[in-house]
Amino acid sequence: MKLKPAFSYQNLSIVKKMAIGYIFIIFIPIISFGLFLYNQNYNSFLEEYAQGRQKIVNQVLNNVNVSTVQIESAYQLFQNNSNTIAYLSGNYRSDFEQVSNFLTYIRPLFSYILSSNQMIDGMTIYMEQQNGMVFRPEMARMDEFKLDESIKKLPLGIGKWITFTSGSNQDINLHYFHKIGNRNFEQDIGLLDIKVTSNFIKPLLESLNLNSKSNFYVLDQDNQVISHIEKIPLSKDSEMALLDQAFQPNAKYAYHTFNGNKMLIESFYSDSLKLQFVMMEQVDTVFIGIKKNKYILVLIVALLLLLLSGIYYLIASSITKRILKLSKHMRQVDENHFPIYRGEINKDEVGHLTSSYNAMIKRMDELVNTVHRSEMLRKESAYLMMQAQIKPHFLYNTLESIRMIAEANDDPEAAEMSYTLGKLFRYSLSGTKNETSLREEVDNVKDYIKIQQIRLADRLKVTFEIDAAIDNFQCPHYMLQPIIENSIVHGIANVRKQGSLSIRIWEDSAFMFISVVDTGIGIEEERLILLQGVLNGTMDVHRLQKSGGGLGIMNVNERVKMFFGDRSGIQIESKLHEGTICLLKLAKGVTS
Question: Strand 261-270 and strand 275-282: pairing?
Fold first, then answer.
């Protein structure tokens, strides 16, 4: 046994299908596009921001490198100054020569360098020779050097930048050391110590524009923090984990999420100073404008979604409403009721479907009516066969005997009635065809009226007005008699005053017209509306059957339509207590 799937898209109603289409065609794409656009803009802004800072800081680092070159060039001034070399080598034996040489040539050189370079905070030359005079603060003995002993062992002609830890202080204790050699560079005669001012890296700090959510670190060649500015509290492990991202020899940047906050980590390396500068910054405080743009983007997406939803609803409703109306109308169709859809029909696929449905319903109604008419003809044929079983001559002879007895008894009315009745029976029983001429129909009606006049006496007044060629105009048998019978029996006979019956026949090029006008009781308005609806095909004939009566007129109308075509038929107009007008409209040249 094959199990049916729990969910089948094909079995969903059109409204649910449109809702699913809205979700996958409008809602999800718009939301996805909005998120994608926001992320693209956000990431693009982050990249542009970091790259812009990189360019600015790299420019500052280039300036720092230029400054380091200027500071390092001070060594050349001392190394190439013969008086300084002579003094450090101990060539001046007398105190006068030493004092004169120092004050005349060496101290002015110190003053010149300090005044020409604002980044130099102080300079000291540590003398290797112990026999010379020491002029402070410019000169000092080597045994007075308090820093790392490894610096004393620098190779001759090699300079080195050294930084010293300053704890939590953001200032960097930065020195440049360089050995000074004798004239032939055979031995070192002094150690130049240039102390750099704390403003040396101030332009770098200003270019970084540190805020309240930023940390700044300076690391030496051993990746040890020698200076830092901390405005974001970090544990030691967290600090080291973030610094590990920056321990690279080349400048770079990266974004990392820490404690739910997005952080920008930027690293800048000074090749001349052999220092690594690392900045950590929470981007949420920087990109406040992006947050505002986020809300604006959400608003724009919401408005766009609302607009597209409205457009989608209008398009969908224009289709679904008409389909649902047609579906609701189609549920009213049954085997005895075929209503035509009379709603709005546009020139699109739904309109084409509706038009095709109406054409199908009309055709079905015609087919059902054809079957109904065929059934009526079958019953009529059976009736005629029953009539044929009666011995016509026996009936005629009996009526003739009644007429002769009436004349013998001097009863002319009975004799006339018997004679007329015999003619009526002869017309109905002796015919072998279902059609006759309109002349014979009129003569048969006149015989029927004679009998009714004998019965009603002065209460019935009848007039005939024939203005048409009726001798050769073919029509169904008993087409007029049921209409005349209704006018007399159900109309005139129900009033006490004298009633009149007017029968008029006229024609034009396309139709033969027969009007039967009586001054009888008339028809109630509700009953008249039902009769008119059944005759013009807008109401079900079964309603007429349930209400009782009127089937004779309906049968005549059906026979007329079958004989003369759909353009023919019966029209009834009536007013209660004033009378009834029955009009037969018979198309010419369409008889079957």
Answer: antiparallel
